[in-house]
Amino acid sequence: MTGTLEETQVRAMFDRIAGLYDRMNTVMTAGLHHQWRRRAVELAQLGPGARALDVATGTGDLAIALADRLRGDGEVVAVDFSERMLELARAKADSLPIRFESANALALPFADDEFDAATVGFGARNFSDLDQGLREMVRVVRPGGRVVVLEITTPRRAPLSRFFGLWFDHLVPALGRAAGDAQAYSYLPSSVRRFPSADELAAVMWRCGLVEIRYWLTAGGIIALHVGVAR
């Protein structure tokens, strides 16, 4: 397992693990992932009547947080290429005003400048082409709107770097084996290892058309929150 699966393999993998996804997220983050998503929503700076897009929405947690922020005064569209993930997201969102659509992050089916903000939470590292995925997010956001990326990153300093290695390289795959999908939870640490560092991701975001880029590290440097403004 190299962490570089074909797009069809990644889609099939997420369809397969959809039923485990929320439980594994809670176990792996000690339940803190909801807090990080709320922070991502704050960075999107959505005002009344705003339109927001959540890319690679998975089971919809970040889209739900966006809808909670808007409180019915605006619109949230959430996309993913895993139909099984979308089924679970729709059930979880219940009556919230979120439109879930099947779409590939590398070719979003929306017009230029259609949204006030676009977010991606723990999905950017699964883009088969990171630059293309970010360019698509920038394309559909109006000038002055925001693009927010919430992602796992590799801590550089001990002792957390040693703990991270133990947790992601050994314990997470073991949890995956216990849950019945060793391949998927071996892919996870590999995908994190090959993802750009926080500084590198900021440079990629600038290259893709964003300005005023800022980022914060939290959870001891394991989680990075990036935000940029569309030109």
Helix-strand string? HHEHEHEEHEHHHEE
What Rg is obtained from the alpha carbons, in whole angstroms? 17 Å
The share of residues in extended strands comes to: 15-25%
Separate helix tally: 8
SS-derived structural category? alpha/beta
Helix content: 40-55%
Strand order of the biggest β-sheet: 3-2-1-4-5-7-6
CATH-defined topology: Rossmann fold
| Largest sheet descriptor | 7 strands, mixed
- The counted number of beta strands is 7
Structure description:
- The chain is α/β, with parallel strands linked by helices.
- It has a single domain, classed as Vaccinia Virus protein VP39 (Rossmann fold, 3-Layer(aba) Sandwich).
- It is 48% helix and 23% strand.
- The chain contains 8 helices and 7 strands.
- Helix 1 (7-29) crosses helix 4, helix 2 (33-44) crosses helix 3 and helix 6 packs antiparallel against helix 7.
- The longest helix has 23 residues, at 7-29.
- The model has no long low-confidence stretch (mean pLDDT 88).
